[in-house]
Amino acid sequence: MIRWNRSLPFARPERGALLKDILIGAVGGALGTFAMNQAQALMAKLGESKQQDASPQQEPATEKAARKLAEPVGVHLEGEQKKRAGNAVHWSYGTLWGAIHGAMHERVPLAGRLFGVGFGLGLFLFGDELAVPVLGLAPPPQKVPVKTHLSALAAHLVYGTAAEGTYRVVRRALS
């Protein structure tokens, strides 16, 4: 496995392992994104059955990001095209963070702790609570209902545990 150098906070794994860990992490990120989508769909379905008066739905942050990325190159996204582009942003973001997690997993001592709960919590805090509002893709956190925060937190915890579980299973299978 990995030999730790006690003088540094980082491990020094065998050569060539970084690319393998990045790829395994990306697979974990993609499966985590799938699990997150399923959790969000389930929470939305449960929320609809309890909701009496439906308020107009705000444009999802992923669709808004896709639209903002496409506009400078002269592409105007609407309807189904915008929805597909938003999905591409969501899947790319989840897969990218999985790859980053994979790269860090064997090299940063705390990266694999708490079986992905810390990873999911970190992405929720950094992404949903900080980066998305700062980039103007969503309202500031204080203007978002608590129920929405809790749903997003739960979805990110599902993502983190699925990504971590996938990483561990695939890494062990390939060792």
Task: Note down, in words, how this protein is organized.
There is one protein chain. The termini are close together. The model is unreliable at 1-8 (pLDDT under 50). It is built from five helices and no strands. The chain is mainly α and 175 residues long. The chain has a domain at 17-45 and 88-174. The protein has helices spanning 17-50, 61-70, 79-105, 117-134, 146-174. The chain is globular, with a radius of gyration of 18 Å.
Please give a quick description of this structure.
By secondary structure, the chain is an all-alpha fold.
The rounded distance between the terminal residues' Cα atoms is: 9 Å
Mean pLDDT: 86
Helix/strand class: mainly alpha
Strand content: under 5%
* Low-pLDDT runs: 1-8
Q: What are the secondary-structure elements, in order, as H or E? A: HHHHH
Our count of helices gives 5
Largest sheet: none
Shape descriptor reads globular
Radius of gyration: 18 Å
Instruction: Give the helix level as a range of percent.
Output: 55-70%
Task: Count every beta strand, where a strand is a DSSP E run of 2 or more residues.
Answer: 0
